[in-house]
Amino acid sequence: MDMVRKMKVLILGGGAIGRTIAEALKGEFEVTIIEKDELRAKSLAESGFQVVHGDFSYTATLLKAHIDKADLAIITTMDVPTIKRTIQVIRSNNKTIPILTILPDDITPEDIANQMKEEFETEVKIDYAVSPRKAISKVIVEIVEMFGEKKNANLLAKKLQELKQKGDALLIIMHDNPDPDSMASAAALKAIAQNFGLKAHIVYGGEVTHHENKALLNVLGVDMSKVSRGSYEIKRYPFIALIDCQPNGNLTILEEDDLNNIQIIIDHHQILQSLKEKLPSDAFVDIRPEVNSTSSILAEYFKALNLPLNETLSTGLFYGIYVDTKKFSKLSHVDLKAIEFLAEKVNYELLDKIEHPDISTETAEILARAILNRKIYKNVVISNVGFITNRDAIAESADFLLRLEGITTVLVFGIVDDRIEISARTRDVRVNIGKVLKEAFGEIGSGGGHAQSGGARISLGIFKLAKDKSSLLRLAEEAITEKFLEALGIKES
């Protein structure tokens, strides 16, 4: 028996915006459009939409559209008097339904509420409001960020194409005692170079130490050789790429005349002062001290150039970032984007084979899910990690998400056996997270803790009626989000 009905959405206005929203929601939601114009209403009905013909600012029309049973009302007009009249009529017939409205750029939800208080002498609230200017601004910022990501990757692609026209072999040099970030980055650069038709070989001058570094070397399955200063192995290559290193810093195998062959340097450490003058003027240099891992820069290249990235290399890059960011405790914007990009491609069994004692297979997988599934409400993050067996990983994920820039409070939850397990953290001195959890979940389960950290547990109980696992997760997420934000005194947006 299907116990979960589709969410009922009322779209008030069947013009260009209303129709576009309806088409996007069709199928997943039960959509009803209210349209005053008879011809437009007929056209929408012929296109397969559920349509109520009438003026949506009238009670009779809203009742005909079953406003009492709807889960969300979307007002698509930008005419302020109509918006106010409509909100008043909706609230007269359904006190609790969330209202989403499009507002002109110069009007705020507070303006509408204040005007309505004067005109109708009633307290009303708009739950969600969208301004065209802000919506366009958000899209433009996302596009500009995308161009920023692609700029360096495109310059690298151009350099590799140039090298291919002059020769076909590239020597990739890591620092003397390569660590996971260095090895994963070198393997990634080799894969990119091969995509442009170059033969690439990776070398280093010292030793691969520590069991996890040796394990990663085996897992990557990429040939990496030890070479000596002045050796033929270096001299025979027409082009050199330095990855995660610079001469005389943590790299000692290059002689002065070898510097003339350096065509590529990719690093996240500050460029050494004397190096710029010694490099060929046309060398590709991508040195970003604000990024905490070279693996993050290489992941960005793969994403921007849309190159195939296998799970072995994804796992290596993910691990390289993990180690160089001190277990994800120090992340730049580029590092975070790289983790998001890699998380779904990582093979967590391979991670386990690296045998690093600080990160188990399931912990890494749950952490990846916590990053990918995070939802932000102002300065609060809520993340659903799904069905798991490792309760401790929920707390570790909460600790990690609290480190994100601009975030002051975090809640992570997952389903373990027959219960929902919750961990929350805060660094907001105004919030006592233990009290918040008790208030939010005390009546339906148990919750509590200290001022900065706490936990809660809820029996699945009624959630078990959900028809499948995804419905169960969605219902749990909706309930937890609503109760937690309410206890924090924050509106969902």
Describe the secondary structure blueprint for this structure:
Elements: E1 8-12, H1 16-25, E2 30-35, H2 38-46, E3 50-53, H3 59-64, E4 72-75, H4 80-93, E5 99-102, H5 109-120, E6 128-130, H6 132-166, E7 169-173, H7 180-195, E8 199-204, H8 211-220, E9 224-226, H9 232-235, E10 239-243, E11 262-267, H10 275-278, E12 284-287, H11 294-305, H12 311-324, H13 333-343, H14 348-353, H15 361-372, E13 375-377, E14 380-387, H16 392-401, E15 409-416, E16 419-426, H17 433-441, E17 446-449, E18 453-459, H18 469-488
Parallel strand pairs: 1-2, 1-4, 2-3, 4-5, 5-6, 7-8, 7-10, 8-9, 10-11, 11-12, 14-15
Antiparallel strand pairs: 13-14, 15-16, 16-18, 17-18
Helix pairs in contact: 6-11, 7-8, 7-11, 7-12, 11-12, 11-13, 12-13, 15-16, 17-18
Account of the protein in words:
This protein has helices spanning 16-25, 38-46, 59-64, 80-93, 109-120, 132-166, 180-195, 211-220, 232-235, 275-278, 294-305, 311-324, 333-343, 348-353, 361-372, 392-401, 433-441, 469-488; strands at 8-12, 30-35, 50-53, 72-75, 99-102, 128-130, 169-173, 199-204, 224-226, 239-243, 262-267, 284-287, 375-377, 380-387, 409-416, 419-426, 446-449, 453-459. It has 493 residues and is of the alpha/beta class. The chain has three domains: 8-130, 3-Layer(aba) Sandwich (Rossmann fold); 145-355, inorganic pyrophosphatase (n-terminal core) (Alpha-Beta Complex), CATH 3.90.1640; 361-488, Diaminopimelate Epimerase, Chain A, domain 1 (Roll), CATH 3.10.310. The strands form three sheets. A six-stranded parallel sheet has the order 3-2-1-4-5-6, sandwiched between helices. The longest helix is centred in the N-terminal third of the chain and has 35 residues, at 132-166. The two termini are 33 Å apart.
